Amino acid sequence: MIRQMSRRGKFITFEGLDGTGKSTQMGRLAAALRAAGHTVVETREPGGTPTAEKIRKVLLDSSTAGLSPLAEMALMFASRAQHIAEVIEPALAAGGMVLCDRFTDSTEAYQGSGRKLGSEPVLKLHHVLCGDLQPDLTLLLDSNPHTSVSRARRRNRQESKGAGRSHDENRFEQETRAFFARVREGYLAIAKRESERVVIIDARGTPGQTHSRIMDVVKRKLKL
Ligand code: TYD
Asked: What fold characterizes domain 2-222?
């Protein structure tokens, strides 16, 4: 019997500043896709595998002092390379839909623009370490940078006060307004350069409004 090869799945990434509601929107899209009969894997970066989650702790814990921008970029890619090998590629090969909260565009925006390392080293490392894997679609959630970053700060402060937490995820939230302004500019430049793949989603309305914008884009772009 000839076994039919399953069709390669679709890779959708969510990008944007901290606190733009990416995780909520990813959960809602995942639920809608599952209801339509798709197999969906939800994952995130940095992290997504046990080893990559250890790297996440180093990267996001505010007790990690003095990490150089280059070391930070290298750790983002170490986490990503493991995540691709262990989770993303196998799921896509099996025909699943992979929804990922952040991917290489985050490194280009945060380390490339925010930390001023430039896009070139990020794209080169992506080529070497990620086999040039590109999302089929990237949803860039855009809202007022000041409001979204303040929201992320409040949330993380509350979470790190929670019982039994030995670490926090506040290292990036301590950055300045100027840093987040550069990150946002970095994202908008990627969207301009790769306008086929990256769609800017206005995330200033209610979660319901943002979700329906996302559903329209996903149906149109991925022809679902
Ligand atoms: P995330 O958990 O998505 O934070 P939030 O839910 O607040 O948006 O990401 C954690 C932080 O890591 C976030 O501040 C952005 C940063 N980051 C980078 O700087 N470079 C990267 O490549 C990635 C994946 C994340």
From this structure: Rossmann fold (3.40.50)
CB atoms under 10 Å from CB of 97, counted, come to 24
Residues 178-214: tens digit of each pLDDT: 999 999 999 999 999 999 999 999 999 999 999 999 9
Question: What's the burial of 37, exposed, middle or buried (CB within 10 Å: 0-12/13-18/19+)?
Answer: exposed
Domain parsing of the chain, residue ranges = 2-222
Q: Pocket around ligand 1: residues whose beta carbon is below 6 Å from it?
A: 18-19, 22-23, 45-46, 60, 76, 101-102, 106-107, 110-111, 152, 172
28 and 218 Cβ atoms separated by less than 8 Å: no
pTM of the model: 0.94
